[in-house]
Structure formats: C-alpha cells, structure tokens
Amino acid sequence: MLDGIRVIDLSTDVAGAFATRLFAVYGADVIVVEPPGGHSIRSIPPRAVGIDSDAEDADAGILGAYLHAGKRSIVLDLDSPEDCATLDRLISSSDAVVETHTPGALATRGIDLEAAMERQPSLVVTSITPYGQDGPRAHWRATSLTAAAAGGEMSLCGEPDLVPLKTAGHQAYYQGGLHGFSATAMALLAAKRSGTGDRIDLSLQEIQNSTLEGAGPAALTRDSESTRGGNAIRATWGIHPTADGYIGLAGMPRQAPSIYDCIGHPEFKTDPLFANGWAPEANDILLEIIPEWTMQHTSRAIFELATEFRTPFSMIPTPRELLEWPGLVETNFWQEVEHPVLGRHPLPAGPVSFDGDRGTQRRAPLVGEHSDEIHASLEDPPAPSSDVPSGTSEDPDLPLAGFRVIDATQVWAGPYACRYLGDMGADVIKVEGPAFPDSVRGLGAAATAETVNLSSYFNEYNRNKRGIVIDLQQPEGAEALKRILATADVFVENWSSGVADRLGLGYDQLHELNPKLICVSMPGFGHEGPDAARVGYGPTIEQMGGLVALQGYEAGPPHKSGISYGDPVSGTTTAGAIAVALHRRELTGEGCYVVVPQRDGIIGLVGEYIVAEAIGDPLPTRIGNRDPWMAPHGVYRTVDTEPRIQLGIDGLPISEITDTYIAIAVDSDDAWTALRSVVGDTRLDKPAYSTLPGRSAAQDEIDSVLAEWARDRDADEASEQLQSNGIAASSVLTPRMLKYDEHLAAREAFLTYDHPAAGKQLSTRPVWRMARRPITTLGPAPCFGQHNVEVLSEIAGYKAAEIEAMVASGLIADTPQGL
User: Fold this and answer.
1) How many CB atoms lie within 10 A of CB 808?
2) Is residue 501 a part of any domain in this protein?
3) CB 185, CB 98: distance < 8 Å
4) Closest listed residue to residue 193, CA positions, set 347, 387, 343
5) Do residues 122 and 384 touch, judged by C-beta distance below 8 A?
6) What does the pLDDT read at residue 54?
7) pLDDT of 278-313, one tens digit each?
8) What angle (nearest 5°) sits at the alpha carbon of residue 70, between those of residues 64 and 73?
9) Rounded alpha-carbon distances, angstroms, from residue 458 to 192, 283, 356, 652, 738
C-alpha cells in the first residue's frame, strides 16, 4: 500500500518507533537513524536472557526487536557536522520525517526541519511529544507512567478505594505512535493531492484527553467529575471470577436478553424489572446473580456457551494463550521472522487488511546494519518518491476537502474514526435507523424524542457530520443508501460479520456500483476464522486482545482499563487506514476493501510481551504501578481538594470526589539523587538505594517515605518542583481537571460550537495539529434525522413527493420510533 514512500525515523521513544513500524509493515522504506550504540529503545529492558556482551546488548533488546521490525538502520552521530549533513541529504530523499525529541533539541544540533520543508514543500514532518511543541510544560520529562497520568486515562482506571492504576506497558506512547502513523498518512495524502506537506504537532496528553469516553464530554459540557469505576462498573459491563480464573462481560442493555438466556434466567426477559439491565434496581440484583453463576463454570466453558447465545462474554488470554489462539493461528496472524540475536520469533500481522493484505513482517535490523548501502544511495539521491504537483499553496485545503464519507457506525470506535475524517474536511454523513438510533444517544438506554439530541457522549464523537435516519432493513432504504454511496468516496460500517451482505451492501455489490469506493468494515474479530461471529464492544476487544491479562494491582485480578480502550484504538487505526487507501487510490484510481479487526489492533500494542513470551523470557504482569526497571515508580495520594461533583445524567449530584494523586518515575540514578534532594528525608540516604537493584529491593520502604511526603502537598505544585529538578512526575489529572489545566489552556486545546438542540458545547480540539492546515472551528453533531431531506434530495436525487412518501411510510424519520 505504501510502496515508494520513504519515511525517516528520528524517534527517541516508543511513540515514534511504533508510528514508523506501521509504515514499514505496509511497504514504506523506513530508515531509522540511530546514534552510536543504538536507538534509545534498544536499551530499554527487557533484553534476551543470556546476551551479556556489551557489543550485543543493543541488538538483544526485545522492545527494539519488535518496534524496529521491517526498517533499515543507519548510524549517525548528530553531534558530528558531517553526519548531520548526511542526515540532511537523507531527509531530502524522503517523503516524511517522524521525530520525538524535546522541542528545540534538534535545532540546537543544527538540524533544521523547517528549512527542509521550505526546500521541499511536499515534506511531512511529524513531532510526537508528551506535551506538544509549545506551552508551559512542553519541556517536561515523561515516562509511560507520568504520560498516562497527565492525559486523564489513568484517573479512570482502577478501584475507587485504591490508587489509580497504570495500564500495561507503554500505552500512552503506543497511542501516540498510532496517531503519528494516521496523521502522517493523512498529511501524505494531502501532499500528494496538493504538493503541500505539513508540520504535525502531536501531544500525548491531548491524545488521551480526546479518548475519555463519556467522562470527557461530561466534564466539558456539565462540569461533572469522574473517577475510577473498578472492574465491574455494572454487572453486565465488567470482569467476574470463574471456577478457574476470570471472564469479561460487556453488554449494552440491548444485549440483556442474550445474557439472561446464557446465565440460565430466561424469565428475566419478560420481567419489567430487568428490561434494562443497567437500571440501578436490576443492576444490584445482577451483581449478585452473574458472579454467582460465573464462579460455577470455567472461563472456557462460559466462553463456548456464549457462542451459542451470541452473548458478549470474553476470555482474558495471556501472551502464551494468544500465541496458541486458534482463531489467530488459523488466519495466519502470526508471522515468524529469524533474528540474528533473538532467534526465530513471531510478529503480529498488521492491524488492517487492504484487499486481504495484512502487510509484510521483516525482522528488526541490527544497529547500523544498512549504513553502507544507505550512504552509497545518497551519493546520487533520488527525488522524493511521491509524484506530487509542483508548487505549494499559501492556504491549502484540509486533507479531505471534497471527499464524501458515509458513516454507518455506532457507539464509539466507528464514530470516533469518522470524526477524524470530518475534522480533516470530509463531508461525513452519519446513518442511523428510525428504530435503531446510535446507542449512545440514550447512553445505553432508549433514546426518546426529548433526549435523542442531548447526549454529550454522542455529540462529542459525532461532531462535524451530517445525519440521516433511514431504515436499511427495507429494500427501499438500502436502495436509497446505494444512491448516496454511488456519489461517495468512503463507506464505513461496524456491523457484525454477514450483515452488510444480507443488506445488499457488501463489498462486491458496492464495488460494482462504485469502483472508486473505499469500503471499510470494523468487525470485532475479522470476517474469517472461528472468532468472526463473536460480538463485543471496546472492553471485549481489550480483553481478547491480551492487554487486560497483563495489568492489575499486585497479587490482584486482571483489570480492565478505565475506558473502552479498544474503541479509540480501533477508531484511530481506521482513520489512518482510510488515509492510506485514499493515497493508493490517487495512484490506481481504484477503491479497495479495508477490514479493521479490532481485537488485532490491541495485540499490536503489547507486541513486546508477545516476543518476550515466544523467546522464553516472559515479562512480569499485574505489578500495579511498579516497573521492573525503574524504582521508585508509583502513584501517591496528595492533599485533598474541595469536593468535585459527579453529576448524573439528570444533572443531579451523585457523588463528591476529593482525592488527588501524583505519579513519580525515577528512571536513573541521577534522578534518584535529585529526588532525595527534593524530599529531604534522611531515611532515603541509605547507600544501597544509590543503585536500581537496591531501590527495587526496598520499594515498600521508599514508597512509604514518598507517600508521607506527598500526602500534604498540592499535586500540581509537587509536580512542578520535581520536574524543575529533572524528575519525571505529573499530577494524575481527571477529566474535569483537564478542562481547567493550565497547559491545555495555553495550547487552546478546547473549541466551542453551537448545537441546534444542546446549545453551546465545549469540545476537544482535533489532536492532529497541522501547521499549514490549522483547524480553529468545529461543526456540531447532527440532530436525529436532521439532514434527511437535504441529503436525499441534493445527493440521492429524490423529489419532494418521494421524500414525503418515505416519511409517511416510516422509511425515514426525525424522531426515534418504536422505543
């Protein structure tokens, strides 16, 4: 898909390395620029056991072996003017650069990316940093722990009576990498069309702030606070113990009947008390009944029974179980490579299938393995590979200006993907059914005529769209949608496997209708193999994708994330996949069939755990907020605030929240020395603590001192003090705190728009910040059926009398029916 594109990896961390890894998977020539001794992620533990020599250490890094897979490597010393000149020639031969240095750091070494863009207007430069390129915290240090704390997701993860919990691995950075790939792909599309590239500024904090599910919109629109809901937010939305472990369950109210059948209580289907399993009275009873039932069965038995009833129970597989999972093995998801140091090991297939192509996996290079061949190629450097128009525009259009997207998705993953397309300038038309409005319009319950347009959740993730309501179950409705699709560039659906074909809207039918149409399907588990028929939402995806088995409090059960983590991951992946598909269409003139198996994308975010397991060096799991290679490393309670109110859907207070926390990560002996100086407690002066092994052995003692120090301090002030001394630290910011965060305010991270029914709304700024294509205004989400007449007449070509007949027959509507 990306053959002929060259990307220069100037990253220093997981975010940039993952972004460029995805480019390599889909055919781009990715060249990673490494300093003498190797890229910094090569030195991040773990390393393969038994690799002891210094010369081999860098190449024995498991994280590097995963994230650099498929790339070429050149060693350049950026303190050498000669090597900087080589880098300059290398950049001139490329289409895109991805970098993650502290803002201004490259410029101080004489590497002027702005000048490179002036010389080569089509160049795309993407910077991914913890806090963005400007603002009061732009130069703050971060680790995976503190980056998670700064973005809001950590505040929602964990048990309400325990400290907030970090998700496994490097999730904040992986999210940044996924956005780096998708935003860069979008800018490359724009460059191909116009000749004008872009300078992209991505902030890990802002990326997470845009993914807070219902808690983010509640804070922005109602000033409502949110906190940790624990492992079982609701009986039908959580993790329950079984006879031999744990099982996940993620069912919306409309899945309640299948759940009741599965657990042996079909009588609940006709009991008014249980009509909505999320209602407080029903939920309280189900919280007793469901765990009582699950503990009588093994996890596997429940999972297999769930297949019969199409019930959204999910296994919580470990890395070993994923490697042996039949559905992944049978679909050739694991692709083995032979590494000179690590030996033979698997890599996961790409997270997207383009006309059946899941990309190509090649082993990671050794440090500097391709230096000679790259140097030789630069003696007569080729022109940048994109065939772009000459010249550049002072005020270029947004990347997707002029494209039309039909969004037939619901809940979060699909709408989130299509929101990015709307933000990038596409005409996005959202499709709902008269009796099947998007579930989140009613926050999981039935949407009524009075409430259907007021959901802050729906409005946040469906902004910049038009909306139609049409019954696709009726042949006339499917025919009307086909008339719209004949004019479209992209069609996106997240229906269960087989639904599109049954409606006459499968890829083969639509390709015949419109050969240039890009059809995108977002099934939970793909359309092939034994898992294809399974149903599930974001929690199901993160559980089945292997993330949840890895995280949890020490000695505790596997723990779900605080959000439906699979949804924004799948949504961002889909937006990037569409950019890639449109890029390819610019070359071929043909559309394609894009499938995004949502579970598979999560597996890609824990790739180092998979590689480590495969080579016999498994990584530690469920270690709370601690880290095997950093100490101290934790979250500590700070001084309470005045009560922050959590509001119900009805606007009435339901709880008061006062707790605040700080995350601290000591990632070097120098940082430890600085921390001792700041805390000033003699109990930290033991000589054994001067080394990581000594601190790791005494984490309980050190944590007790830090907890005592933090308890009477303001989290923001303590973070500022620690950062000023070179220590990675951050307040654990909540959704409401982010709304008033000083750094986000300085970066103008929120914009307002007027909604026809809900009034003035505050929304997150699009996190893909493009310097040449800035976005300063937003459009509202559509009211239910708001654009029926407009779309059907102007695009589908129906006459007024025909549209009136559609209204009379119930084929289209502007209020929900039958609810």
Assistant:
1) 9
2) yes
3) no
4) 387
5) yes
6) 45
7) 889 999 999 999 999 999 999 999 999 998 898 999
8) 65
9) 33, 24, 32, 20, 20
Residue type at 802 in one-letter notation:
E
CA–CA separation, 568 and 338 (whole Å):
33
662 residue type, one letter: I
* Distance between first and last Cα of the chain: 45
Q: 760, exposed or middle or buried, with CB in 10 Å at 0-12, 13-18, 19+?
A: exposed
Domain membership flag for residue 648: no
What's the CA angle centered on 748, arms 744 and 749, to 5 degrees?
A: 60
Indicate the pTM of the whole model: 0.95
Q: Is residue 582 part of a domain?
A: yes
- 445: how many CB neighbours lie within 10 A of its CB? 18
Pairing of strands 750-755, 759-764: antiparallel
Residue 629's closest CA among 167, 59, 144, 38? 144
Residue identified by tokens 């409309």 is 254
Q: What is the DSSP letter of 782?
A: P
Name the CA radius of gyration of the chain, rounded: 26
Count, in order, helices (H) and strands (E) of the chain.
Answer: 33, 27
**Burial, 153: exposed, middle or buried (Cβ in 10 Å; 0-12, 13-18, 19+)?**
buried
Domain region containing 540: 404-603
Which tokens sit at 514? 């419109």
Taking a C-beta distance cutoff of 8 angstroms, is the pair 596, 568 a contact? no
User: What confidence score (pLDDT) does residue 139 get?
Assistant: 97
For residue 46, whether the previous peptide bond is cis, meaning omega lies within 30 degrees of 0, is yes
Domain-embedded: residue 624: no
Q: What is the CATH number of the domain that holds 445?
A: 3.40.50.10540
CA–CA separation, 563 vs 151, rounded Å? Answer: 12
| Pairing, β 518-521 against β 593-595 | parallel
Residues 6+ apart with CB under 8 A from 313: 247, 248, 249, 262, 302, 303, 305, 306
User: pLDDT tens digits for 542-551?
Assistant: 999 999 999 9
| Helix (H/G/I), strand (E/B), else coil: 546 | coil
Contact 562, 237 (CB under 8 A): no
Instruction: Decide if 117 contacts 199 (C-beta within 8 A).
Output: yes
CA distance 167 to 715: 21
Determine the Cα–Cα distance for residues 527 and 145; give it in Å rounded to an integer: 36
pLDDT digits (tens, 9 = 90+) for 118-131: 999 999 999 999 99
Q: How far apart are CA 30 and CA 4, in angstroms?
A: 11
Total domains in the chain come to: 1
d(CA 521, CA 500): 9
**Rounded CA gap, 309 and 547, in Å?**
25
